[in-house]
Amino acid sequence: MLFAGTDSSGATLEWGFSNLLNHPEVLKKVQEELDNKIGQDRLLNESNLSKLPYLKNIVLETLRLYPPAPLLIPHVASDDITVEGYNIPKNTLVIVNGWGMQRDSRFWSEATSFKPERFEKEGEEKKLIAFGLGRRACPGEFMALHGVSFTLGLLIQCFDWKRVSAEEIDMEEQTWFNLTKLLPLKAMCKPRPIVNKALL
């Protein structure tokens, strides 16, 4: 679980930052949320995360578009069952394409667009299946959401970020076990005033 968590959390941070750099208006909005709720006099801590709904929405939207495991953990049907008109015999291996479901326009408006605001609407978070569902969902979901949100929040609070060129960040995917970027993210950062205060 530790290996899976570090690998997938790192990939989620890279996807999140790539999206933020390609959508500077979203980056500006979340930095303003951090400045208004936390400020530049003290570092973000984990107990502050509940005060940062837009930051949470960014993480959820990143997980929706770029789930760390695009195919959810396989399950075996314990009985003969019919789902949506499909007969699934007992002992059939069932694999859920989470990546495809989370980009399906029947369930998500502008399904391939990065829009953290979509999670402001009540009930949208329940449609997210990046960690699976039910009893067999990923046991690290809470830890992953908090870890990624906390790290992303600190990096945004402490630094101003921009792309290394005027070109948008390439968002091409590379899939093996985890969904990672084909080309590693390159970005520039400039320390904000809180960095000097934190070092003193």
Describe the structure.
- A hairpin with a 3-residue loop joins strand 6 and strand 7.
- The longest helix is centred in the N-terminal third of the chain and has 21 residues.
- It contains 6 helices and 8 strands, in the order αααββββααββββα.
- Strands 1-4 form a two-stranded antiparallel ribbon.
- The two termini are about 35 Å apart.
- By secondary structure, it is an alpha+beta fold.
- It is elongated and about 65 Å long.
User: Outline, from the CA principal axes?
Assistant: elongated
State mean pLDDT (0 to 100 scale). 91
For this entry, what is the oligomeric state of its chains? single chain
How many H/I helices?
6
H/E topology pattern: HHHEEEEHHEEEEH
Poorly predicted residue ranges: none
Strand content: 5-15%
Please tell me how large the radius of gyration is: 19 Å
| Helix and strand composition category | alpha+beta
The residue fraction in helices comes out at 25-40%
> Order of strands across the biggest sheet?
1-4
Quote the distance from N terminus to C terminus: 36 Å
Largest sheet: 2 strands, antiparallel
Q: Please give the number of β-strands.
A: 8
Organism: Crotalaria pallida (Smooth rattlebox)
Family: Belongs to the cytochrome P450 family.
Protein name: Cytochrome P450
Cofactor: heme
